[in-house]
Amino acid sequence: MIREIEAQFTEEILAEAIKRYDINKEHVRLLGGYESFVYEYQKNNAFFILKISHTIRRSRNHIRGEIEFINFLKNKGLAVSNAVPSDMGNMVEEIAAKNGSFLAISYEISPGKEVSAEDWNESLYEKWGEFLGKIHHATKSYESSYPTFKRQAWDQEVQCKAEKYLRPDDVMISLIKESLTKLTSLPKSKDTYGLTHTDFHQSNFYLHNGDIYLFDFDDCSYTYFVYDIGITLYYALFYPFKEIENKTEYYKLFFRHFMKGYLKENTIQEEEIVYLQDAIKLRHVLLYVYFHQANDVSSLDEESMNRLKKLQRIAASNDPMLPIDLVQEFKSIYNSLK
Question: Other C-beta atoms within 10 Å of 289: how many?
Answer without folding.
Answer: 23
